[in-house]
Design brief:
heterodimer, A: alpha/beta, ABC transporter transmembrane region fold, Rossmann fold, six-stranded mixed sheet, 19 helices, 12 strands, 10% strand, elongated, B: alpha/beta, 2 domains, four-stranded antiparallel sheet, 21 helices
């Protein structure tokens, strides 16, 4: 198994756990002999002293065995927990290094399950294997040895019972393992229906589709129940069959044992009743250990589905690789697109962007405008390397973005997303997220520029107000302004707004633009916007249509030369434009 | 209760700052500790009781198995005594041995069959219980007020649905059976021991108080760490959820390292607690084993003495020894299951927490049908606050006539969306009233009310299904032609038809593969198909470019004809032909009038307008 390497650093524990367990198992194996001795020599021999001494020996042994058992549990849990911790850290680190196209493909819901439930499942199985598997194996081998020492004829019983049992277990697991994969699948389906309903509760209610959704859920739920039942029914057959084998062996031992006791009457050192009794205990132990192993395999099959999902994450190499160059560049803040083409991975059809050429100078304010789906967002997504261009290159300060160390690159940029993500914590913490060392004054200063100061102060705890469930209590515009605040506090060289003022009313937006102009002249600003009024005053405006830039000039010039732009303009200014000239 | 719970939920911080609060054992942060075990257990059993027959069947089978298990040692003792060679009888009693062995075989076969039945019944019982619990929970969630989903962590609701219910399932299938069987075995072995030797029975019982004392004390320790472990796991999962769903933001701010560090911190703490919990868990077994052996030894010693002095048969001693082992086993088992049962009860508590949260009130009894609703709306003296003390609407008044097109404008946070939330009864007003056709909306059944309204939200909601089914959400029985026509009306047909599979394209998780604007067009198509009496567009075209919007405009005009429409928009071009424009300011209506009237007034609207068309240009 591929995940085994995570146990390597803890070989010490992994090794010690079974070693100490040997102590426990040896005691378990000796115990029946001592018990037999108590019965054979003590009780039958009417030797009370022997009962006491043997008993005390037994008790001492059990104490030692118990201690070994505790130690072994401690070692095993150390190994398993540390294993799980390392694995968890690695998988999380890996997820944090994946490119967006990869997280899109995995889907966030599934990544969360992989990081949580699946890792816990694997960790549990590791701890089980270390403890139970080793124990079962030792009990098995030791049991056989002890049983054979009593009488070779008991070996024949084992020789018959064991292969049958092995075969049955094997057969069962082979049938069950594909079913477990199906269980996982159906469970995912149930989860996704719930997820959609919790996040989309407003729409479900608005369209009075509660019953419809309940129907959808019940279908998924019933499927899950059915597949679970199938697996459990299959597994329910295993244990009675194994029990029959076990008990048949016990009967066989009684019969053979009885015969041998008869034969050995008068033979000194021959087989005795106590021997038969301990033989029963041993054989039971052997077969029980087999049962334990079979249970383990059952869990293993289940866990291997989890392991596969984890390995899938670990094995995916980030598509976007870190560049080498971390050295500062001479000038700061220029962005150049050279013959850039881009299509989303796995999407058929035309590229989203093609033949993009664009040269944005330091300190310039540039707007990108264009129809829905024309590729505006995709264009700016290429700058911080959320995605990589298929052809051509994107340069910042004259250096290809691919050559930058990602951290250096993204520290130059502050990107305000279309969809605002706030995290649990206070407003101030969310803002400071952009720049942890910011002083309170800086936070407020940035908030003033972002036009957020006023409404934040209207909260009961102003900057220390706790944001609930991703900002559900805030309006869309408030969330956007906190996000802008967060971006401003970074003092970026390049500031990108991906349609991130869409929920602001015009007055607020106008004030935001004015404040930006007055306070951060040196920063290059690239903004996607819908409203011409918002972008009119930009230094230059790129008009994008069907994935390519058809014009890039100031507003006045575009009005003269670009028909599409005039169209957009008139769609917004139809009458108002004339009135206000 | 529910509200309290929310404030107690662990808060996981993403970034720097003081870091996540630690869930100390026993503190107010601990969520997994069952608060009211008795009540929760009662409710849980009522649930299990729904599958009464399976439960009874299971209990019967379990008792029969326990009886078989008790018969086993008795027969084995008989067999052993058949082999035992006394001083008087110098051979093994083979006739007796054969008879006993046959009896044993019969018992074993029966017990195997019963075990099989038990397995099947337990599986059915637990699966049925769990699936009906999930179904009930989901139905409950569907009818919870929006306030609930707005104020509770979605991840937490999800985990109740999956993890907690799963834990209950495990407990139901395993713990119930084993607890019951433990009790039967306990009683049974006691009876058998007394049958064989009352004196030895007393001896065997000596260790029981010891067992109880040790196991309760150990459990206390276990539970402490166990609860802490669960709390930390919750924090860890919370962090994962935030980091993964907000990954693009994390990436944009190159916060990966910070996020990883925070993760490692919680994970390390989880690891430490986990190791401790497991070690304490590991102590239980050996301790019980030790006590068990002590008991064994006592029985053997006293038994030996009795057989020496009072001629107690070896078979009886052997039997009592076996039974005394069976006697301690159930106690161990209960102790071992303790953790599992505890998790299940904690889980059940969290599940019932949702189940008992009040559903959306729906007390409307007015028999009006959707078709009868015309669409006059009047808002009177509406007051509303999401949080007490922070009113959003303070005396909102507005009259809307059937078929009118009303636009609501105002600064961000002025309460525009709140008006929509109240009209659809996502939230209920604190005071004042809303009437539709003169009927208070509190009196209209919610289904009727919402059927009469179609709403397009700024944050679009799409389901991971085909595009056609997503549009059809407005009207489930719509024919393909209707769906296509609705899409065409919303101008969504252009991009849909360009997709390789057209309307049958399956959207990724919540439609994340479409642009925001495209998603909005699909929601508009959905509303078109629903053909409502009242149409609400809440920033429905904010991400659609203005030219596309213009294309939709004519369709919108057609769509709004003969129905009352409420439009919330920032773009004034979107709303200028509205019959009435309502300017909201500070939770009250500042101005009402048509575009021209309001411009002439040179008030708030005029200023907004200036901003949009002239303000920035200078």
């Amino acid at each position: 198994m591929k995940l085994a390497k995570y146990l390597k650093p803890y070989w010490f524990f992994v090794l010690l756990a079974p070693l100490t367990m040997i102590g426990e198992v040896i005691v378990d194996l000796i115990q029946p002999r001592l018990m037999a001795k108590i019965v054979d020599e003590g009780v039958l021999g009417k030797n009370l002293e022997l009962i006491i001494t043997t008993g005390l020996t037994m008790l001492a042994l059990v104490a030692v065995g118990g201690l070994a058992g505790i130690l072994s549990a401690a070692f095993a849990s150390n190994a398993a927990q540390r294993f799980g911790n390392d694995l968890r850290n690695d998988v999380f680190r890996k997820v944090m290094s994946l490119s967006l196209q990869q997280t899109d493909k995995f889907t966030t819901g599934s990544l969360v399950t992989r990081l949580t439930n699946n890792i816990t499942a694997v960790q549990d199985i590791v701890s089980q294997i270390i403890r139970m598997f080793v124990r079962a194996t030792m009990q098995f081998v030791g049991g056989i040895y002890c049983a054979l020492r009593i009488s070779g004829s008991f070996g024949i019983i084992l020789l018959i019972a064991l292969p049958i049992q092995l075969f049955l277990i094997f057969l069962m697991l082979k049938k069950a393992s594909p079913l477990y994969a199906q269980v996982q699948e159906k469970l995912d389906r149930v989860n996704s229906v719930v997820q959609e309903n919790v996040t989309g509760a407003r729409v479900v209610k608005a369209y009075v589709k509660e019953q419809h959704e309940i129907g959808r859920f019940n279908e998924a739920n019933t499927n899950l129940r059915d597949i679970n039942l199938t697996v459990q029914k299959l597994m329910a057959t295993l244990s009675p069959i194994l029990m029959i084998i076990m008990n048949a062996s016990v009967i066989a031992i009684l019969l053979i044992g009885g015969q041998e006791v008869q034969d050995s009457i008068g033979v000194i050192g021959g087989i005795q009743v106590g021997d038969v009794m301990s033989a029963i205990t041993y054989v039971t132990q052997i077969l029980m250990s087999m049962m334990m192993v079979s249970m383990m395999f059952q869990s293993l099959t289940r866990a291997s589905a989890s392991a596969k999902r984890i390995i899938e994450v670990l094995d995916s190499e980030p598509v976007i690789k870190d560049g080498e160059n971390a050295s500062p560049t001479g000038e700061t803040g220029s962005v150049t697109f050279k013959n850039v083409s881009f299509r989303y991975p796995n999407s058929a059809g035309r590229p989203v962007l093609h033949d993009i050429n664009l040269d944005i100078k330091k300190g310039e304010t540039v707007a990108v405008i264009g129809a829905t789906g024309s590729g505006k967002s995709s264009l700016v997504n290429l700058i911080p390397r959320f995605y990589d261009a298929d052809e051509g290159e994107v340069l910042i300060d004259g250096r290809s973005v691919k050559d930058y160390n990602l951290d250096t690159l993204r520290h130059k940029i502050a990107f305000v997303l279309q969809k605002t993500e706030l995290f649990s914590g206070t407003v101030a913490q969310n803002i400071r997220w952009g720049y942890p060392d910011a002083t309170n004054e800086e936070v407020e200063q940035a908030a003033k520029i972002a036009q957020a100061d006023d409404f934040i102060r209207s909260f009961a705890d102003d900057y220390n107000t706790v944001i609930a469930e991703k900002g559900a209590s805030l309006s869309g515009g408030q969330k956007q302004r906190i996000a802008i605040d967060r971006a401003l506090i970074r003092r970026p060289e390049i500031l990108i707004f991906d349609d991130s003022t869409s929920a602001l009313d015009l007055g607020t937006e106008a004030r935001l633009h004015k404040a930006l102009r007055e306070n951060i002249q040196d920063t290059t600003i690239i903004m996607i916007a819908q409203r011409i009024a918002s972008i009119k005053s930009c230094d230059r405006i790129a008009v994008i249509e069907n994935g390519t830039i058809i014009a890039f000039a100031p507003h006045d010039e575009l009005m003269k030369t670009c028909e599409t732009y005039r169209d957009i303009y008139s769609s917004q200014m139809k009458n108002g434009g004339n009135e206000n000239g | 209760m529910a509200e309290n719970k929310n404030t107690n939920a662990p808060i996981v911080h993403m970034g720097p700052g003081p870091g996540g609060r630690r869930g100390g054992p026993g503190g107010p942060m601990v969520r997994e500790k069952p608060k009211n075990m008795k009540a929760t257990l009662g409710k849980l059993f009522r649930y299990i009781g729904r599958n009464k027959y399976q439960l009874i069947m299971l209990l019967i089978v379990v008792s029969l198995i326990a009886v078989c298990n008790l018969a086993g040692p008795a027969l084995q003792a008989e067999a052993i005594s058949a082999i035992t060679i006394d001083d008087f009888q110098l051979s093994v009693d083979f006739d007796k041995l054969i008879n006993v062995v046959i009896a044993m075989a019969v018992v074993y076969v029966i017990s195997s069959i019963l075990t099989y039945i038990q397995g099947i019944t337990a599986a059915k019982l637990s699966q049925n219980t769990v699936s009906s619990m999930r179904a009930d929970l989901f139905a409950k969630i569907s009818y919870l007020p929006i306030r609930y989903t707005d104020t509770h962590r979605h991840g937490d609701i999800m985990s109740r649905m999956t993890n907690d219910v799963e834990n209950i399932s495990n407990a139901v299938s395993q713990s119930i059976a084993s607890l019951f069987s433990a009790v039967i075995t306990l009683i049974g072995s006691l009876v058998m021991m007394i049958y064989y030797s009352p004196v030895l029975t007393v001896v065997a019982m000596v260790t029981i108080p010891l067992t109880l004392v040790v196991s309760t004390n150990l459990s206390k320790f276990m539970r402490k760490y166990f609860v802490a472990q669960q709390t930390l796991l919750g924090q860890l999962n919370g962090h994962i959820e935030e980091a993964v769903t907000g990954y693009k933001t994390v990436m944009a701010y190159s916060k990966e390292e910070a996020s990883i560090n925070e993760f490692s911190r919680i994970a390390a703490e989880y690891r430490k607690t986990g190791i401790k919990a497991n070690i304490w868990g590991g102590v239980m077994g050996p301790c019980m084993n030790m006590i068990g052996n002590l008991g064994y030894l006592l029985v053997a010693a006293v038994g030996g003495w009795l057989s020496l002095n009072h001629g107690l048969g070896i078979g009886a001693i052997q039997a009592v020894l076996q039974y005394s082992k069976q006697f301690t086993r159930p106690i161990n088992e209960i102790a071992n299951q303790y953790a599992q049962i505890l998790t299940a009860i904690a889980g059940a508590e969290r599940v019932f927490d949702i189940m008992e949260a009040p559903s959306e009130p729906d007390e409307g009894k007015n028999p009006i049908t959707v078709d009868e609703i015309r669409g006059d709306i009047s808002f009177k003296d509406m007051y509303f606050s999401y949080k007490p003390g922070e009113p959003v609407l303070k005396g909102f008044n507005l009259d809307v006539k059937q078929g009118q097109k009303i636009a609501i404008v105002g600064a961000t946070g002025s309460g525009k969306t709140t008006v929509v939330n109240l009209l659809t009864r996502f939230y209920d007003i604190d005071s004042g009233e809303i009437r539709i056709d003169g009927i208070n909306i509190m009196d209209i059944p919610k289904n009727t009310l919402r059927h009469a309204i179609a709403i397009v939200l700024q944050d679009t909601v799409l389901f991971s299904d085909t595009i056609a089914s997503n549009i059809r959400y407005g009207k489930l029985d719509a024919a393909d032609e209707e769906v296509h026509a609705a899409a065409a009306m919303a101008n969504a047909d252009v991009f849909v038809e360009r997709l390789p599979e057209g309307y049958e394209t399956v959207l990724a998780e919540s439609g994340s593969d479409l642009s925001q604007g495209q998603r909005q067009l699909l929601s508009i198509a959905r509303a078109v198909l629903a053909n409502p009496k009242i149409l609400i567009l809440d920033e429905a075209t904010s991400s659609v470019d203005t030219r596309t919007e213009m294309h939709i405009q004519s369709a919108m005009v057609a769509l709004m004809k003969n129905r009352t429409s409420l439009i919330i928009a920032h773009r004034l071009s979107t709303i200028r032909d509205a019959d009435k424009i309502v300017v909201l300011d500070g939770g009250v209506v500042a101005e009402v009038g048509s575009h021209e009237e309001l411009l002439e007034k040179k008030g708030a609207y005029y200023r907004l307008y200036q901003n949009q068309y002239a303000g920035i240009a200078t």
